[in-house]
Amino acid sequence: MEGNIPAYYSNVSNRLFNVLDKVGLREDIRWKRINTMLHTEEIESMVSKVPCHIFGSQAEATTTQGLQSDIDMLACLPDTDVLQSIPSFETSKLTYIMVSDASTPPGYVKLQILDRDSSLPLLDVQSEGRSLDSFGRSVLCNRNFGSWSDTERHGPADKKIIDRSLSIDHVVALRVRFWPCRASHWGNRLYNYPSQENIVLIKQTGALLVPVGHPLSPESHLEWRISISYGEKLLVWQFNSTQYKCYVLLKMIKKHFVQPICGEKALSSYHCKTCVFYALQSTPSSLWQPDNMLLCVELCLRTLCQWVQIGYCPNYFIPEENMFHGKVYGHIQVQLLAVLQDLLRQEGKYFLRLSCDGIGQRLTRLCQISLLDSVNQVKDGVESMAFAVLTLNLEIEVARKMFACQDLDNKISFLTKICCTHTTTDPVLKMFFSSILGSNLASQCLAQDVINQERLNIAHELLALGCLSDVTSGRLKLAAFYLMQDKFVMAENVLHQIQEKYTYLVTDYNMYPREEALCKILENNLSASEFVRQYVAYPVSFCQSEIHCMPKALIMKMFLSRRSHIIDNCPPQCACVDPKVFLHYLKYQCYLRQGKASHKMAALDNMMRVVFYEGLKYRDSALNLLACCLMQEDMYINAWKVFCISIRLHSEHNAAIWQIAFLINDAFLLLRYRQ
């Protein structure tokens, strides 16, 4: 499963963990609320003079202001015993004995009243509050059992409204001081959770009998549900911070995404709690850490999804009891399954839409701040790498001049030593260096009368490795290398690959990254180097040692004054061109030499659109390349206009001045030829 976990899960999990702290789920607040409920229990017991206990969300502190959970107050009848078998002694208390038969659903029992004189069940007795079951036994009815005055009845609970946002559900129940036989198998198996000490402690708390029957049972009015609320409360209290917040998140998901579609009864908080218990039992404790928050929530959602598919939600203490019985079936089951599967497909992104307690807005704001920091770091890294690449070009040019009279092997060895000082800390820079070195070696080979094929193959290998440096620069140099050898099909394939990549998130390094590309930084936790390799298009830079692997239109730019870099940020004795312009230029040259007229004109039109309508860093180089293409089409007037635009932009140290001289000469020769 780990291989399918999105890379952003860890980052978003930590931010979600912090957001939940802001809405009142910090550990210190959690225990203050628990202690407050314990004090409330004591006060309520003193006032009502019966043992009172608070269960559910308020007692567990697993609620927030947005969840608006009620207070579940339970009163245990005093001077009453509930036994599992007939006692061998007489008792003065009102005593009930738990009975069940083949028709009694799992998790439920019936109660017979014992005769105080004989300690035997009373038979064939029908009076107020008692009735005969299908076996002719006199059992206690659960209807209207222990009703409170001035309250509204809701199932086994009497609801008392305190204010608009708070109400108290009063339930009168019977205390069972022993562990029920129906749950006798719980804790006997070897599980990761809970510990043996907690199992012993929970079994000592006993159980409660709540006056409510199974919804589909014909004798539901005679049945009492076994509730191990004490044990559940102890288990929740022992949740660590991640387990605790995961449970609250499930309740928020239920309220925001499930209830509006499936209704309130389809999925309850008790289903969510049971799901967490089973998830803890089947996973190592090391999984439940803050940076795995999304993964833990998804694990619970998958468990719920499996239960909905089979229509069976097992009670944690009595697995034979199906808690979906009478609640999740038919169209409700289909709707609930669809909602859960849709949430799983979104891979945690639904939290950005979670309105409960403003979780979605808080998380979005926190992710945007974090994303901005990450983007700024990546953008600084991208710019630093651009500077490092240009520095490599300059040092290679210096090395070329220093070793001009020495053999090529010594020159390459020296270049490698110089450039390794820049590339030891960044593997992507090594790929840039490979491209630069390959282009230098290819230029040296192509300058010779007799080409050394072995060295040319080495240059090709270096240029191919350099394609991994970024999206464009290494690949464009490789395409130019193919064109110099008239390998048009290979050049066309490389250029087509670059064109395809430009349709997906790629951005020129001097432009602010596209929004989708920024999201990739957060989702995949990308470093600056990896972001460059996948999504950034660097300009193509040539130095004088690459003169035989570059277009003639750029050669003259390298022989301008050293002050040219002050104007266009291009290093002295180098020529730089924006990647998208150079892409369309190479496509034009490739199609021109293959005789593909329609493709050639399409490339020229695209080049004109990029030059005049997109933001470029090296606009003078782009205009000069465009003008040279127009000259090749014998469009001298248009080429003249483009050169003039270039000169108006940069009146000094512009190669367009020299290019105009060639244009006049070519136009004059053409005129003479036509005459």
TrEMBL record:
This is Mab-21-like HhH/H2TH-like domain-containing protein. Residues 245-326 form the Mab-21-like HhH/H2TH-like domain.
